[in-house]
Amino acid sequence: KLSIGTVERLIHYYRCVEELIIEGQTCISSEELAEKTGYTPAQVRKDLTWHGALGVPGKGYATDVVQQVLRKLLGKHRPRLVGLVGVGHLGLALLRHPDFHKHGFHIVAGFDKELTKIGHSIDGVYIYDVSQIEKVCPLLKIEMGLVAVPPLEAQKVSDALIRAGVLGILNFAAVRLSVPSHVHLENVDLSIELEKLSCRIEGWL
Amino acid sequence: KLSIGTVERLIHYYRCVEELIIEGQTCISSEELAEKTGYTPAQVRKDLTWHGALGVPGKGYATDVVQQVLRKLLGKHRPRLVGLVGVGHLGLALLRHPDFHKHGFHIVAGFDKELTKIGHSIDGVYIYDVSQIEKVCPLLKIEMGLVAVPPLEAQKVSDALIRAGVLGILNFAAVRLSVPSHVHLENVDLSIELEKLSCRIEGWL
Ligand SMILES: NC(=O)c1ccc[n+]([C@@H]2O[C@H](COP(=O)([O-])OP(=O)(O)OC[C@H]3O[C@@H](n4cnc5c(N)ncnc54)[C@H](O)[C@@H]3O)[C@@H](O)[C@H]2O)c1
Ligand SMILES: NC(=O)c1ccc[n+]([C@@H]2O[C@H](COP(=O)([O-])OP(=O)(O)OC[C@H]3O[C@@H](n4cnc5c(N)ncnc54)[C@H](O)[C@@H]3O)[C@@H](O)[C@H]2O)c1
After folding, report:
1. Which positions 12-71 of B are in contact with A (Cβ < 8 Å)?
2. Inter-chain contact A204–B1, Cβ cutoff 8 Å?
3. Which of the ligands is closest to the CA of residue A99?
4. Pairing with B104, which of A75, A140, A160, B34 sits 20 to 30 Å away (CA)?
5. Residue A200 touches partner B, C-beta closer than 8 Å
């Protein structure tokens, strides 16, 4: 099992080598990878060696080897299918953000309760009635749900996603959701990002 | 200087004791605080003692003492004023999210370039023309900026915020911004949250 810190570093290494491969770079030293991702060369070597990407002393690591090793680890060998519940301001921003797609995450269905939104396709994503979650998610093999509804609605849509077989929930609503132990929950709280920025400005960080 | 991990824990302790104080609880043990925040009691004790919140063995910590100590550290003794650039889908979701306000962050101005948005007030926040950033931010004492514009516009709005005296930028656009060394930059990349969730589902985390 990896720590969350390790996973974040591996994601950054992966994205870095992915760009380098596109630019035609076949080899990278731990110093260069460290500099591009903001970690120390020692940390980079420790992480890569631990996960089986062996480097050549004095030369570095083959970018395609690093990519292969990390691809498996990060589950990138297959597309990850996502359902979005709540197609409001935040939901629309999530639907239109090109990065998810670029990193292998595909929002394949939206769910809402507003009649003006249901039955339409936004950026190629069909919006279903929220009552259809349990029918549509298994059909489309959705394994992760984005909860972007108002706080009072979040628990019930999360329950519906779980009944539909979803294994992971990314929650944006400002409430503590309760999920069964086999379901993974990640909360996004942008005010925490503001707090960290504020601490940096205060000089504490 | 604190590590980012420590700052995140302190933020969670602060929010926890804030709720307890509202509920009238005057004392909390490290076990209870650990359980409510998801850390270990040993970590809680180490963090609080290090920062001057002394506990009574066998009894715990006075919630108001913990709040005072952390309040200073986290810069919460004063409101933190924020400007939002880009009042699109993401920008509107940020404007309407009640939590920022609750944690002492006040979005006091919005900036956009679309004529249909400029000159209006949304949820009590006036939307200025983006060309007014350098005039308005110092006047309103804005110290942090939220960059929620399309990727190709992000560097130039960030430059304008910096010329206006902003010390911290929270960037949502999928580009690497370049800022001078006295300015703090925090990037929000929700696809990283999806990656972490995916790793949890894969069982790696
Ligand atoms: N995590 C953060 O930092 C952060 C930032 C901004 C917003 N938010 C939160 O994200 C959520 C959405 O914000 P928003 O600005 O997009 O709100 P919004 O009101 O624009 O959108 C909410 C959408 O959910 C739909 N909806 C409501 N109840 C539903 C239900 N039971 N089933 C399906 N759909 C339902 C609405 O019809 C609407 O389309 C809110 O909880 C908000 O507080 C979080
Ligand atoms: N960080 C993440 O995970 C994440 C998630 C969703 C969206 N995003 C990003 O956030 C940004 C905004 O997304 P959105 O869906 O709200 O887009 P949007 O198109 O709905 O909104 C962009 C807004 O910026 C304004 N704008 C454009 N150029 C400007 C300029 N030079 N000065 C001032 N305002 C300007 C537009 O008029 C519009 O109101 C995009 O870069 C998007 O990729 C990031």
Report:
1. none
2. yes
3. 2
4. B34
5. yes
What is the DSSP pairing of strand B80-85 with strand B144-147? parallel
Residue-wise pLDDT tens digits, A134-149 = 999 999 999 999 999 9
Lowest mean pLDDT among A3-12, A114-123, B109-118: A3-12
Q: Which residues pair with B144 in a beta bridge?
A: B82, B168
Asked if A107 contacts B160 with a C-beta cutoff of 8 angstroms, the reply is: no
Element (H, E) at B71: helix B63-73
The C-alpha angle with vertex A16 and arms to A10 and A19, in degrees rounded to 5, equals: 140
A97–B174 C-beta distance less than 8 A? yes
Structure tokens at A177: 């959701």
Give the CATH class of B80-192: alpha beta
Nearest chain B Cα distance for residue A192, angstroms: 8
Task: Output the pLDDT for position B202.
Answer: 82
Chain B residue numbers touching A195 (CB-CB < 8 A): 7, 11, 74, 103
Query: What pLDDT sits at residue B132?
Result: 98
Contact residues, chain A, for B90 at CB < 8 Å: 89-90, 93
Residue from A94, A97, A146 whose mutation best tests the ligand 2 pocket (most atoms within 8 A of CB)? A97
Q: Please give the average per-residue pLDDT across B178-195, as a whole number.
A: 93
Separation CA A204–CA B68 (nearest Å): 16
Domains of chain B: which residue ranges? Answer: 4-73, 80-192
How far the first Cα of chain B sits from its last, in Å, is: 28
Residues B188/A189, Cβ–Cβ less than 8 Å: no
Ligand 1 binding pocket includes A47 (Cβ within 6 Å): no
Distance separating alpha carbons of residues B72 and B205, to the nearest angstrom = 34
CB of A189 closer than 6 angstroms to any ligand 1 atom: yes
Ligand nearest to the CA of A153: 1
Summarize pLDDT for A10-69 with one digit per residue, the tens.
999 999 999 999 999 999 999 999 999 989 999 999 999 888 888 888 889 999 999 999
B4-73 placed in CATH 3.30.70.370: no
Note the pLDDT tens digit of each residue in A140-191.
999 999 999 999 999 999 999 999 999 999 999 999 999 999 999 999 999 9
pLDDT of residue B161: 98
